[in-house]
Amino acid sequence: MKTLCFFLAALLSASAAAAQNSWADGDHPSLFVLGGFNEMFVQDPGHIFNISFPYTTTAVSGTQTFSGSLKGSYRPEVPMFDVLLLDVVYKRSGYYLGYGLNRQLGNDYAGYVKFGYDYAFPFHGLMLKPGLDLVFFTKREERMGSIDNVNQTVSALGIQSGDYYTVTIDDGEYATYDETYSTDHLDIDYSRSSLDLGPRLTLSTRPFWGKAVLSLQAGWLLPLVQTSRLRFEQVSAHASDPTHLAGHVTLPQNGSVGGPYVGITAGVRVGRVTRS
Predict the structure, then answer these.
(1) Distance CA 189, CA 221 (A)
(2) Per CATH, domain 2-271 is 2.40.160.20
(3) Element of type H or E holding 16
(4) Where do the structural domains in the chain lie, given as residue ranges?
(5) Distance of CA 87 to CAs 16, 31, 54, 268, Å?
(6) In angstroms, how far is CA 215 from the centroid of its own chain?
(7) Where would one find the signal peptide in this protein (predicted)?
(8) What is the pTM of this model?
(9) Has residue 74 got a pLDDT over 90?
(10) How far, in Å, CA of 177 to CA of 191, rounded?
């Protein structure tokens, strides 16, 4: 880790000495394509839990009980991979939109979408850029179990799942039609999503070697809105068939997808944004 820090510091210093051109040359905005890696230190990562609830079916008299649990564990340190960031820089202002992947639970990935703004101040040949990020961590569904739904209607927590379901299909030519499928089973999935807002401070090179940029950053994401839900998904016996959401139940908040983070970003300037 120390070797990496020394290498990054040396690269920042060398590129600062080599690049004295402006952050965005000319009167037109510059477009940068970036990628990066961040490590977020989650303050309250969430917990694995078991859940059980009563349900009834039309094929069996009386009440039955569903029991399910999450697998794995929530990570206190969440790696975040900025797969693609598009950064439009005009004079000293930067506006970007991007998509990435993170690991909150186990080794599987969930996606996130981020929007951001920053303003650049010259700093000893580099650019110091305070900014603000808005990040939406999309839901990732975790299977907790299934209920047999063949030739019967399942009723649970105010949700009913019949022995068939109808899905509207888009034929790709601006027309739609309805298709009906026989329900094989009802999947019970858990999902969690979060909308975060937070400050960010970036230390960036000016473009060096003509187009390349390198940045170190640190910030803190604060959850604005979080959802924690059980989803009831109707599934046919054929894996290729579409599924259908029978309903969902909102659960108490489970942890907090947010906290301080540090990271590195690199990319290239691909051109300037001009009006046609």
Answers:
(1) 27
(2) yes
(3) helix 2-18
(4) 2-271
(5) 20, 6, 51, 10
(6) 21
(7) 1-18
(8) 0.81
(9) no
(10) 29
